[in-house]
Q: What sequence folds into this?
């Protein structure tokens, strides 16, 4: 597994910008945030869990770009939560606080909104895809699959971001933008192949 400092140091050496490690780290985190908008075979997340708190409606979305499923387990019984929009959630509540075992959820910024508002502690499990933890990458020893399976794509995006936003070399940035698209297409092709063959590899973080 490649650690964060090794990843950014390689880019700094390749661009001959070894004094701007901090800026390259920022560019890398921006690259991961952009890349996480797309589902790849390695950024699926399964078995993310959290416990509700009585009378608390909003919960962190666990860095998921898209939620595939959300369910509550009570004893041996699974209860699925079905997606709503915030508009539907507002209409459903109609100005009143309704408490109980949640059976709906809506996205609200970087949060999940549960309805009814939990009246007790419930174990919630989430599945979907998005930014792998840790996020953002801060520690020099931080690591995740973006720096391995997605390394070429993220490295190209990082160079594009750095050259465009820090150096203002738009011509070079455009070259790396095209390079990043090529790597993205390769990852999408591999992801599609894994789906079609049934050899999809899910990753838990």
A:
């Amino acid at each position: 597994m490649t650690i964060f400092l090794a990843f950014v140091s390689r880019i700094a050496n390749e661009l001959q910008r070894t004094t701007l490690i901090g800026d390259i780290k920022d560019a890398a985190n921006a690259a991961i945030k952009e890349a996480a908008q797309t589902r790849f075979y390695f950024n699926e997340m399964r078995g993310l869990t959290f416990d509700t708190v009585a009378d608390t409606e909003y919960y962190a979305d666990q860095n998921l770009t898209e939620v595939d499923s959300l369910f509550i387990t009570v004893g041996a019984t699974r209860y699925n939560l079905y997606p709503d929009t915030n508009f539907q959630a507002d209409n459903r509540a109609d100005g009143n606080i309704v408490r109980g075992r949640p059976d709906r959820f809506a996205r609200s910024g970087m949060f999940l909104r549960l309805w009814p508002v939990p009246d007790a502690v419930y174990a919630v499990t989430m599945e979907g895809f998005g930014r792998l933890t840790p996020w953002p990458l801060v520690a020099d020893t931080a690591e995740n699959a973006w720096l391995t399976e997605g390394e070429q794509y993220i490295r190209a995006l990082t160079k594009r971001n750095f050259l465009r936003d820090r150096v203002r070399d738009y011509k070079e940035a455009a070259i790396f933008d095209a390079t990043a698209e090529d790597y993205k297409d390769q990852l999408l092709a591999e992801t599609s192949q894994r789906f079609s063959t049934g050899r999809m590899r899910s990753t838990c973080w």
About this structure: The chain has a mean pLDDT of 92. The chain has two domains: 4-42+131-196, 45-130. Residues 170-197 form the longest helix (28 residues). The beta strands are 44-51, 58-60, 64-74, 77-80, 82-84, 99-100, 104-108, 111-115, 117-118, 123-130.
